[in-house]
Amino acid sequence: MLRLSGVCVSGGQAAGPVVRVAEPLPEPPSTPAVEDHAAEAARIGPAAEAVATGLFTRAAGVEGDAKAVLETTAAMAMDPSLSSRAEQLVRQRSLPAPRAVLEAAEEFAESLRATGGYLAERVRDIHDVRDRIIAELLGVLAPGVPTLTEPSVLLARDLAPADTADLDPDLVLALVTEEGGPTSHTAILARSLGIPAVVAVRGLLGDTTVVAAEVDGDSGAVALSTEPIEVRSPERRSGAEWTGTGGTSDGHRVKILANVGAAAEATTAVSRGAEGVGLFRTEFCYLAASDEPDVATQRAAYTEVLRPFAGRPVVVRTLDAGADKPLGFLNTAEEPNPALGVRGVRIAFDNPGVLDRQLEAIAAAADDSGAEVSVMAPMVATAEEAGWFTERARAAGIGRAGVMVEVPAAALAARELVEAVDFVSIGTNDLAQYVFAADRQLGALAELNDPWQPALLRLIELVGRAGTDTGRPVGVCGEAAADPLLARVLVGLGVSSLSMVATAVPAVGGALAASTHRQCARAAEAALAAPNPSRARAATREALE
Q: What are the helix (H) ranges across 272-344?
């Protein structure tokens, strides 16, 4: 057997025959030049509509997480901005419709990459929609998961959320991908379906003679065989039902919140039972803006997102931009290392008016919506910076202000930091990439960005202890919170709220309700003492038994 390893994102063991997920379609050519521009452009809208209809049809046959993901992907396919841009390319450059869709989608994808963070992780979704529309235009089957006739292990270069959304757990023994990362939607969906999954497995697809595989979703080990092996189905683990109120089985309160960045995501979060919002990303209001949106425009946009959470807590993150996420009106200078440059709250130091106007709009939107709004600043490194932001928030009439802990310095100075604010929220995605100097978008470095890395957990412990000692709430709003097993470790480290992609809310809430606070504390102690992520997972499971 060929033995490989990757990043485990959903626990359990399974074995059986492999089925390879089809590779993406080849890049459509830009020739021959189109002569009838109107007729060619007119093909794009119906193709996008057909893709959306197919996805909505699939969504109608499922519930919960799968339904939300398929409906979100369908909405992306229907987005008129993509079709309109592709039609424009047909007319301007005489491109065939498939090529125009490819180039239009890449423009949108590049915009998301430049924005960074969560939005950059949605590039895979754009590519998925692109490939589906191109396949419709070419009259061929879209790439993706083939129809399964027997229980199988799926091997793929990567998987879009729509590929995994309506998988049948009785037929899919396990998922293994060569690319991808621990915070992807695919990872979250695999956990919600109880399917063992390992990502970032280098060399997975090299040997085409492989016919079977053994997958250990707890350790990240994958064994590929050229001979048939006995089928072993994963043991389905069940937890308590999600009641809508977060906490442990012995009554220790932990808020279960959602991360949102648009009105549609807010609606989904409410439907999944989120108690509120732990991270409202406001960058959507600024994307593609050549001029700063005025207060009235921001107010209306924020109100639309906040309204579904009237009477409930919402934490709004102020603009997270900079040289790594350029916005035209900020006139940020080119930097040799933008991820370490003037970004996040540092932009506000030189442009305080931009922050003040945003805070004014947020305060007004809070009044309009009835949501219980707090604000927090990104990329804060020192207690002085935290105090500066808190003062400006208070001056804008916002009574509760906090900061994100994404910079290792902030975690190391957690006591001073929490005393300068009303709360802190740990952004585990960025904190991990800064701790390990590992770009979270690079699949080759996915193991370093594994949120189970003990070094990362030890930094979280510092912040959790500071919060406990001072009585300040400590949240986690990175997608580490979306892992039901890791969520219990985080609670044991002193975290008082967990915020995640909406589809993960029920599973995390249910898992937490199945454990006592003391079990969470023991799990945290075991994970902190482990030498690596794999051992940390195993030790946590033992502590929770």
A: 295-306
Task: Tell me the C-alpha distance between 501 and 185, whole Å.
Answer: 8
Place of tokens 């590049």: 110
* φ/ψ of residue 258, rounded to 5: -120, 150
Identify the three-state secondary structure at position 265: helix
Contact 260, 500 (CB under 8 A): no
Is 477 labeled as catalytic in the residue annotation? yes
To the query of whether residue 520 is one of the catalytic residues in this protein, the response is: no
Q: Do the Cβ atoms of 186 and 479 come closer than 8 Å?
A: no
Q: Name the residue among 267, 283, 350 with its Cα closest to residue 111.
A: 283
- Starting at the edge strand found earlier in the chain, the sheet holding 197-199 runs 2-5, 221-225, 212-216, 13-20, 152-156, 172-177, 197-199, 7-10
Smallest CA-to-CA distance from 278 within 425, 480, 150, 496 is with 425
Using DSSP's 3-state secondary structure scheme, residue 472 falls into coil
Q: Which of 8, 285, 477, 520 is catalytic?
A: 477
Catalytic residue among 127, 185, 285, 517: 185
Look up residue 517 and give its two tokens: 């606070």
Where is average pLDDT lowest: 172-186, 195-209, 499-513?
172-186
* Structure token pair of residue 463: 């912040």
pLDDT value of position 289: 67
Angle made by CA atoms 207, 211, 214, in degrees to the nearest 5: 95
Distance of CA 425 to the CA centre of its chain: 16
Q: What is the pLDDT of residue 10?
A: 87
Q: What distance in Å separates the CA atoms of residue 284 and residue 306, rounded to the nearest whole number? A: 14
Q: Which amino acid is at 524?
A: A
Q: Which residues contact 525 (CB under 8 A, 6 or more apart)?
A: 492, 543
In tens, the pLDDT along 464-523 reads 999 999 999 999 998 789 899 999 999 999 999 999 988 789 989 999 999 999 999 999
Give CA torsion, residues 288, 289, 290, 292, to 10 deg.
Answer: -160
The whole-model pTM stands at: 0.79
Q: What is the CA radius of gyration of the chain?
A: 23
Query: What are the tokens at 298?
Result: 């921001």
